[in-house]
Structures are given as C-alpha cells and as structure tokens.
C-alpha cells in the first residue's frame, strides 16, 4: 500500500477485517461505540450526582465505567477516521501511545474486576466489617493500585515490542496497534520476550481470574449455609447491586461472571499463547470482543439493571423535565 505521506517509521493499519469490506460493518461499530460511550458516561454522571450512590460498590463501578469509556475510545475513533479518510498510516509515536493506553486500561480493568469481586465478597461474607474494610481511603487506594499497576506494566510491554527490529513490510494486520500484531512484524527471535509476556499474563490475567472465581465460590457457599430464606435473598441482593429476589440476584451474579469470562477468556488466549497458535483473523475477533463489545455490555450488566441506578436515572430525568 503506497501512501505519499508515509515515512520510514510509519506503520500501516489495515483495519478491521480487511478481507471483509462490507459498508454496514463500520456503521455497526459506530452504533456500538455510541451505545458504549453513552452508557458509561450516563453511569459516571449518575454516580457523581446522586448522593445515594456514593458507596464503595458504586465508586468501583464508576472507575470501571471510566476505564471502559477510555478503553473503547483509544481504538474505535482512529479506526473510523482511517476508514472514512482512506489514510491508514499511523506514526511510530502514535502507535506506541495507543499501545500504552490500551494496555494500561486493559490491565487496570483486570485489577479492578478483581477488586469488585472482593467488595462483593466482603459485603456478603463479612457484612459487619464492610464499612471498616471498604472505607473511602481503601477505595481510593484500590483505584490508585489499578491505575498505577496497569500503567507500570503497560510501560514495560510498550517499550520492548516497539524497539524490536522490523523487517520488510510495516503493515499491521489489525485495526489498532496491538502487541501481538506488532510482534508478528519483528525479524528477531522474541522467544525470551514471549516468556516475559506469558509470566505477566499469569500475574495480571490468570491469578485475578482465579481470585474472582474464588470470591464467588465463597459467596455462594456462605449463602447456602444461611438458614433463613430472607437472609439468602438479602445477602444475594447485596452481591448483585441490591436487587430483590433470589433468582434475580443469582442472575446478576451469573451475569457478572459471564462478563468476566467474556473479558478474561479472549485476553488469555491472545496474550498467554504464542502468536503462532492463532491466526490474525482470530486475534481480531477476540480483540473486538474485548475492546468493543465488553465496554458496551458492562454498563448494562453491572449497573443499568440495578434498581438504585435506575431510580437515580428517573430522578435526574424528572428534575430536568421540571426545570424545562
């Protein structure tokens, strides 16, 4: 692909499924991005404005929405711009910046999902100590740990791949600068770095995933040990955004685990296995699930089905209607 404004250090982003040039695909991506951006922005605004939502659970949810909002915004706008302008080149610095923010947000989300599971565990299994264990300072420290931990790890995994020598074409067969796609361009032996990447994936993906499953296992065991049906419903409702009813509560907890699996599953396949084990098309599909679909689903599954959030939304809409 010959572009006049390319330089020797520019990369070429081939885009989302370059072999499938259907005009409606980009429109679907735009609609998903709009829904994800709107859902996460509304949730952030409601948690900030409504004093009833100034609790640890909703603070962590607000951080998740902030991450998802930035997560989808660091890839989709560039992809859409390239599609409509026809310019597919991206500078070395822009590519490194996109990779850094993508990794920072992704790793921060891994940490935050684990902390949210811990919050649920404390609320159900140690309710009397909840206000002590989940005080405002602890919540701020949790958020800081997620962001700082993600940024430090992302810095390492940005510097190394972006400094590997590239042989031949600088075409990235992807819609953004993702690490495995960049590693495929390298002309040197990267087996040592693959091992570092594998270890990092265990630390930031596999271990958090195991901790989340452990938290929910302990939650359900605690619920099953309770004697009264009312106690079960109350505990499960605490775990699932205060929804009433055992079935509804179980459905939300199951949805939480489904989204965790939806996020962690593709990420572990992409980053824990050597790039020779999966094709470029498979990488793009898995990345699209993580970067586009998950940020759209998270507000719906975690919050927008929550009665307190819906109540805050109704109050905000009624207040605006009265003022107008």
From TrEMBL:
<dbReference type="Pfam" id="PF13853">
    <property type="entry name" value="7tm_4"/>
</dbReference>
<keyword id="KW-0807">Transducer</keyword>
<keyword id="KW-1133">Transmembrane helix</keyword>
<feature type="transmembrane region" description="Helical">
    <location>
        <begin position="139"/>
        <end position="160"/>
    </location>
</feature>
<keyword id="KW-0297">G-protein coupled receptor</keyword>
<dbReference type="InterPro" id="IPR000276">
    <property type="entry name" value="GPCR_Rhodpsn"/>
</dbReference>
<keyword id="KW-0552">Olfaction</keyword>
<keyword id="KW-0675">Receptor</keyword>
<feature type="transmembrane region" description="Helical">
    <location>
        <begin position="249"/>
        <end position="273"/>
    </location>
</feature>
<feature type="domain" description="G-protein coupled receptors family 1 profile">
    <location>
        <begin position="39"/>
        <end position="302"/>
    </location>
</feature>
<feature type="transmembrane region" description="Helical">
    <location>
        <begin position="198"/>
        <end position="224"/>
    </location>
</feature>
<feature type="transmembrane region" description="Helical">
    <location>
        <begin position="99"/>
        <end position="118"/>
    </location>
</feature>
<comment type="function">
    <text>Putative odorant or sperm cell receptor.</text>
</comment>
<dbReference type="GO" id="GO:0004930">
    <property type="term" value="F:G protein-coupled receptor activity"/>
</dbReference>
<keyword id="KW-0716">Sensory transduction</keyword>
<keyword id="KW-1003">Cell membrane</keyword>
<protein>
    <recommendedName>
        <fullName>G-protein coupled receptors family 1 profile domain-containing protein</fullName>
    </recommendedName>
</protein>
<keyword id="KW-0472">Membrane</keyword>
<dbReference type="GO" id="GO:0004984">
    <property type="term" value="F:olfactory receptor activity"/>
</dbReference>
<feature type="transmembrane region" description="Helical">
    <location>
        <begin position="25"/>
        <end position="49"/>
    </location>
</feature>
<dbReference type="InterPro" id="IPR000725">
    <property type="entry name" value="Olfact_rcpt"/>
</dbReference>
<dbReference type="GO" id="GO:0005886">
    <property type="term" value="C:plasma membrane"/>
</dbReference>
<dbReference type="InterPro" id="IPR017452">
    <property type="entry name" value="GPCR_Rhodpsn_7TM"/>
</dbReference>
<feature type="transmembrane region" description="Helical">
    <location>
        <begin position="285"/>
        <end position="304"/>
    </location>
</feature>
<keyword id="KW-0812">Transmembrane</keyword>
<feature type="transmembrane region" description="Helical">
    <location>
        <begin position="58"/>
        <end position="79"/>
    </location>
</feature>
């Amino acid at each position: 692909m010959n572009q006049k404004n390319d330089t020797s250090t520019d990369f070429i982003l081939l885009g989302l499924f370059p072999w499938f040039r259907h005009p409606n695909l980009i429109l679907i991506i735009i609609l998903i991005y709009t829904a994800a951006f709107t859902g996460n922005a509304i949730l952030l605004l409601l948690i900030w404005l409504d004093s009833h939502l100034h609790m640890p659970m909703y603070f962590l949810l607000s951080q998740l929405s902030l991450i998802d909002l930035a997560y989808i915004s660091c890839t989709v706008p560039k992809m859409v711009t390239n599609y409509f302008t026809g310019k597919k080149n991206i500078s070395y610095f822009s590519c490194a910046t996109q990779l850094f923010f993508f990794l920072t947000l992704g790793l921060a989300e891994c940490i935050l999902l684990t902390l949210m599971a811990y919050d649920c565990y404390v609320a159900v299994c140690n309710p009397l100590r909840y206000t002590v264990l989940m005080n405002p300072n602890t919540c701020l420290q949790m958020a800081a740990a997620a962001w700082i931990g993600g940024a430090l790890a992302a810095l390492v995994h940005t510097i190394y791949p972006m400094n590997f020598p590239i042989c031949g074409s600088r075409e990235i067969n992807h819609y953004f600068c993702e690490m495995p796609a960049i590693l495929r361009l390298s002309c040197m032996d990267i087996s040592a770095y693959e091992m570092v990447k594998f270890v990092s994936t265990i630390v930031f993906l596999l271990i958090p995933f195991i901790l989340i499953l452990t938290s929910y296992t302990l939650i359900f065991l605690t619920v099953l040990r309770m004697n009264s049906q009312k106690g079960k419903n109350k505990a499960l409702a605490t775990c699932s955004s205060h929804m009433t009813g055992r079935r509804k509560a179980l459905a939300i907890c199951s949805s939480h685990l489904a989204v965790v699996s939806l996020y962690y599953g593709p990420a572990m396949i992409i980053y824990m296995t050597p790039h020779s084990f999966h094709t470029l098309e498979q990488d793009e599909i898995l990345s699209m699930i993580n970067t586009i679909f998950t940020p759209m689903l998270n507000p719906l599954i975690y919050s927008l089905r929550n009665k307190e959030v819906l109540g805050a939304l109704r109050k905000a809409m009624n207040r605006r209607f009265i003022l107008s």
